[in-house]
Amino acid sequence: MQLLRIDWNVVFTIINLIVLYLGLRKFLIGPVTNVMEQRKQMIEGQIADANNLKAEAGDLKKQYEGMLAQAHEESAELLEKTRKSAQAEYENRINAADAEAEKIIENAHKTVELERCRIFSHRLQFLQWQQQEKYLVRQVRTRITGYCINSF
Predict the structure, then answer these.
(1) From CA 72, how far away is CA 94, in angstroms rounded?
(2) What is the C-alpha to C-alpha distance for residues 146 and 124, in angstroms, rounded to an integer?
(3) What angle do CA 115, 119, 123 make, to 5 degrees?
(4) Sign (positive/negative) of CA torsion 104, 108, 111, 113?
């Protein structure tokens, strides 16, 4: 039975290895595994938080872009409204200026017509005076001639 002979050193070595394994497992591998698991959970939590923050940032970006587009639309509407208002004001002022110019032209035409009438009236009066003067001159000549003839 030589083959089955067990050396006590081998048995003690195996027992030492088992005790060393159990000791390492309890005091080294267990705590290291726990620390690694905690770090894994912490990293996964940070990744989840980062993904949440990224999604929130994306939502905020969409909201900002929507507000920016709305602001652009409002500014375009305000600009168009201002343009229309300015165009209406321009047209009102042009119409008022045209009306004022028409009044001035109409008054000028009336003034010219009145001046023509006044000039015509003065001319007619002048012609009447000339006619009266000629008539009076004839009358005076006739009387002088008649007086001269009667005196001789």
Answers:
(1) 32
(2) 32
(3) 170
(4) negative
Query: Cα(20)–Cα(30) distance, rounded to whole angstroms?
Result: 14
Tokens of 22: 């159990």
For residue 38 the two structure tokens come to 């905690």
pTM of the model: 0.45
Within 13 A of 54's CA, how many CA atoms are on the CB side? 6
pLDDT score of 128 more than 90: no
> In one letter, which amino acid is 121?
S
First to last CA, the chain: 216
Which has the closest alpha carbon to 81: 73, 70, 93, 91? 73
Q: Is 4 exposed, middle or buried (0-12, 13-18, 19+ CB in 10 A)?
A: exposed
DSSP 25: I
Alpha-carbon gap, residue 10 to 16, rounded angstroms:
10
Max mean pLDDT among 29-38, 124-133, 136-145 falls in 29-38
Instruction: Extract the tokens encoding 50.
Output: 């980062």
Q: Which two tokens stand for residue 57?
A: 């940032």
